[in-house]
Amino acid sequence: MEAQGLTKFNGMGFLYMSGAKNTEAVSCRPQNDTEIGVAVLGYGVVGKGVANAIRTNANAVCKKTGLRLTLRRVLDLLDFPDSPDAALITHKVGDVMGDARVGIVVETMGGTGAALEFTKMAFAKKKHVVTSNKELVAEHGPELLALASEHGVSYRFEASVGGGVPILRPLEECLAANGITGITGIVNGTTNYMLTYMKEHGADFAETLRGAQEKGYAEKDPSADIEGHDACRKLAILLSVAGGAFVDWKKIHTEGIARVTQEDIGRAADLGRVVRLIASGRFAECGVVEALVAPMLVDRHSPLACAEGVNNAIMVHGDLVGDVMFYGQGAGMTPTASAILADILKIAGGPAPDVQISEDVRWDRAREAVVADAATLAFRFYARIRTVDRSAFTEALFREFPDAGLLPRRGDDNGDGGSGDDGGNGYGGEGGGHALAFTVGPVAGGLFAERLNRIIKSVPGTEAGIAMRFL
Hints:
By secondary structure, the protein is an alpha/beta fold. 33% of the residues lie in helices and 26% in strands. It folds into 3 domains: 6-162, Rossmann fold (3-Layer(aba) Sandwich), CATH 3.40.50; 172-328 and 366-372, Dihydrodipicolinate Reductase, domain 2 (2-Layer Sandwich); 375-470, Alpha-Beta Plaits, CATH 3.30.70. The protein is built from 14 helices and 20 strands. The strands form 3 sheets. Strands 10, 11, 12, 13, 14, 15, 16, 17, 18, 19 and 20 form an 11-stranded mixed β-sheet that branches. A 6-stranded parallel β-sheet has the order 6-5-4-7-8-9, sandwiched between helices.
């Protein structure tokens, strides 16, 4: 039977065709090509990437799956007269929602305003939605999944976490037989690029950020990336999918990388470590989730240390499979488009639809996971401070932390022989006094902070620099 306009997929590898003489399900892999009408909301970097991918890869996809992807509409506030998709651009959302040829809507607008409203509109019109919007999924994922189910459509968001790195589908299918006990990884390409650049080029944070913005790796307002919120949202989605219970990203302790200096990068290297922004979550007893996002000192031999530049690396531990790692480009036009097209084909019943275990990823806000207080989680810590009275600080340090280890002065420092003195090379930050670095622990995060604050208050002229955990 020849396709006459896609109206609905049922998420189980079959579709219904409008204009047909009967309503029997037709296999998504017929001998004749089946056309899949797609609309894109938001013609920014990701939206353009999806449109380009549909245009350039449609034939290859059709040969593999029997499904022919066709871009039908593009919604944006602006006109793009020189774009190959100029004729498809509309400024009216009604043009998209009212087009019976559009069966799948791709939301790449970002945010939780219009994106939320338009997603709900699409569900009401029996259209499936695929998104790369991690903010929307982390904030409203449970209600949108429930609403999609209510309308008999699908809501998929592989691209919201790993960009081009497949991670949600493996959790949903390939690792479905496993009890997932933990997820740890690098899920933000911007900060990973910056930390890699600082290490390789000896650049300071501000210089590196400017360069990242000039290259398009960092947004004009980089706060979501450098403060860790982007990684936190992605971690919450991963843990929600893996555990089946909603993890509220706002309850995950989050630290950014803005206080990381060249001294910290260098000292990490002296310790056989590299600095990475790590998103880590573990499923403890009684359903409690131990999760945090923070810059950490990663052993240089760890697979996670090998992830450099804009690449992501996500380590998943299953009770049957052990550790498995997913690695690749975590952002960008074409990697993200790859993940979005994979979700489109999944909805449409693409490659091997018979292996699908569940219609959609599901998690329930009513079964919200309890997130442990990060202050109770024990780690080994690295810390850097500046003080005008090194002797008094050292005495107080060993009084509070008998197991503390003062790190020796680095070979490129030109101080008076003390640990970490700043000789004008940028190590230790600004200001007078001595820059000292030390390690302690393992110790609970709250107890560490309490004791360190007590030391700083007891020694006049002492300022905190940064504290980072060892992974």
